[in-house]
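Sanity check

After download, print the first record. It should look like this:
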Amino acid sequence: MDPDGVSEEVLEEGCFYLMDLGLTAESVGAHFEITPARASALAKSYGAKLKSGKAVRGDFDRVFWEDVKKEAEGDVKLTFLSEKGFHHAWKSELQKLDGPALMSVYESSKDFLGADPNQKFLDFPPPKGYDPLAMDREMRKAVEIIGQLLAEKWKERPGPGKKKSAKP
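Expected structure tokens:
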């Protein structure tokens, strides 16, 4: 086992699936903090395990590594609040919402944070182990990102006298 706690088997699987999803050995190596040559060797090793039957391709594994790839590319999973309760979605999914729907989610999430008397403690780093404010930290991150998405939508909005562009 690696000193950071990541087993060789996890590295093999990760390198294999991420490279199978189109990432380069350089990119995978950079994310795992290993050389590109080692990333390639680990991917080949896992591929050999699949061929020999020592490992089996699974939908769960593929979906997990697709999610890791999304996060590595900057698409983050967010926890937010709407009038129907708590939800999880990728940033890319929220970008597809129209302005009023996005504003509703933003306001609900912001109201949740504003009602929490412990909000002032979010400026301090979380304690090791258990973080009693984990949900609040996730909500704060979502509010910031949704705020950015709203700002982008506002810029795209046609001004007075402009025709709305026909975007697919």
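If your output differs, re-run the checksum step. Summary of this record's structure: DSSP finds seven helices and two strands in the chain.
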